[in-house]
Design brief:
globular, four-stranded mixed sheet, 106 residues, single chain
Length: 106
């Protein structure tokens, strides 16, 4: 490996993993950070309540018809009381990586 390639490799390895933040809301006025396990800096966004149907079998993402069952490990508690979805490559029609669901108290 040449010196430039070795330096590039060292910088990439040493760079911290960065996630991005959810937009501030009344419940979280400073926003909150999506966990790196769900997001690689562009994959997550808030989706409106109308974009998710909750039923006895779980949550259905209306845009894709994807069903996420209640015991699925992709379901996370939403700290701001809004639905948020993280998808492969950040595509709205991509497979769900994480779905942040409002707790029943909101």
């Amino acid at each position: 490996m040449g010196k430039p390639a070795a330096i590039f490799f060292a910088v990439v390895i040493a760079a911290p993993a960065v996630a991005h933040d959810a937009t501030p809301t009344a419940a979280q006025p400073h926003g909150w950070t999506y966990p790196f396990s769900c997001c690689s800096g562009m994959d997550c966004r808030e989706i409106h309540d109308q974009g998710v149907l909750e039923g006895p079998r779980g949550y259905v993402i209306k845009l894709t018809g994807e069903l996420i069952t209640p015991l699925d490990t992709r379901i996370k508690n939403s700290p701001d009381g809004q639905f948020h979805q993280c998808t492969v490559a950040g595509e709205p029609t991509g497979r769900t990586i994480c779905l942040f669901v409002p707790p029943r108290s909101f």
